[in-house]
What we know:
Structural class: alpha/beta
Oligomer: single chain
Number of strands: 17
Radius of gyration: 27 Å
Number of helices: 19
Amino acid sequence: KVIQLDVPDAVLEERICGRWIHKDSGRSYHVKFAPPKSLKEGETPSAENMKDDETGEALYQRADDTSEALKARLEGYHKQTVPILAHYKAVVDVVNGDRPQGAIWEQVAGILSVPVSSRPNTAQRRAMEAGDALDKVLGSGAGNSPGMRALRASLTSESSNAPKSRIKGMSADRNILILFGPPGAGKGTIAPKIVSGLGIPQLSTGDMLRAAVKAGTEVGKQADEVMKSGGLVSDEIVVGIIKDRIKEEDCAKGFILDGFPRTVPQAEMLDKCLFETGEMVSKVIQLDVPDAVLEERICGRWIHKDSGRSYHVKFAPPKSLPAGAGPCEANMRDDATGEALYQRADDTAEALCRRLGRYHEQTGAVLDYYSTILEPVDASSTPRSVRSRVLELLHSPHTENDTPPPPPRQVLVLFGPPGAGKGTVAPVLVESLGIPQLSTGDMLRAAVGAGTELGRQAEDLMKNGQLVPDELVCGVVRDRIQEADCDKGFILDGFPRSVAQAEMLDATLAETGEKVSKVIQLDVPDAVLEERICGRWMHKAAGRSYHVK
């Protein structure tokens, strides 16, 4: 099968050319579907009226999000793709991509003959199952919470009040998780690992609100009207948006709530919402970090405004900061340009103190509410240890608290001149050790393809014919080695190429208490390399390779 997602160019232009971005944070807006508060109805978007909601700073459009750039991109796409579709015309299925995702998937599933899962049992049986589950929880003391008492009362009422039908394809025991953690605790690092480890999405209230407004759902329209009038979105509307979102197919196995609930009334409303499908929150993960550690993490951050490069006075200091010196604008300079770095307004000790005060005040009662399913995790250790502990808790509820940390990773660097045989040796190492081979070229291309913040920076530089700086390359490496396939280790191929890069790599590994384990040098005399390389001849069309000797 060849599936063609067909969307009119005018719709694509509306989707793409309406995007505006806040440079420092990466927050994204859209002039139609998710406009900033600064854009008044009927105004033409510009740098003057497209401002970030949180900082008031000007937004910008990426160079390839303009009508002119998109026109060139679409012409290139059509020119390349039309002949291919003609070649495969016997097996091409055209899907209308100008519809909601659910409708698109339904058509694709029909084309691929994907079987549709049957609906769960009757409402009465689900009520009994939910009642049995609650009995177990209530027996351990969970029934003292107001929300659980309300659920129990509902379960013992008439069958007409029993849970309603679940969504099609929903698992009978979804993983419903809530993730709590103060600023700097590492939620942004841990949540993606849970997502990849369990195959369930991370849902934040901000993202869900923007998506509902963009999709023009009934609840989204209500939220949009409230926000446009300058009001706060009510708990009822937020829970309504969550209720709609968790019916989507990607939530069939479960989901992670991030940033909700923030109060006990919100927690009770969430419980009642889940009860409608005979469910309840499975586990609450609390990333616990002492305030002093959070202050060190957050208040040491400095940023280069134009490029977005990030530094830390302890973990990744710029070259301009002398050892033992206190950071200031005079000695905190970007390594690549020498320009002054700056601190975000909410990265100061005073601002952090206020943020942590609000966090503790808000979440204390909510954590008490979920005390029977609460799993505190020490998040002051290395990201890898935290991730391993969280995944252990989610896969094995009865894991002992004194679980030993995972064994140290094998961090290998492979060197060898052209013709030394790296292409032959590396796959053997990968297979034998069960760790991936990472090349800087592949990692850069993957970051650009995924549209990460570092990937976008690299793409802009490469499009302008500039070299990607060491700091950015090292940042891409830092992100890549946090992926699950690097849990046992990895092989770096083509990096580092200079002592400066080696020092940056050492500093990156030191952040997680690691270092390079081994450096393997494939040593071959130049005369042998010449014989190997200069004797190669190839067939151009087929790529078949020959050697004179």
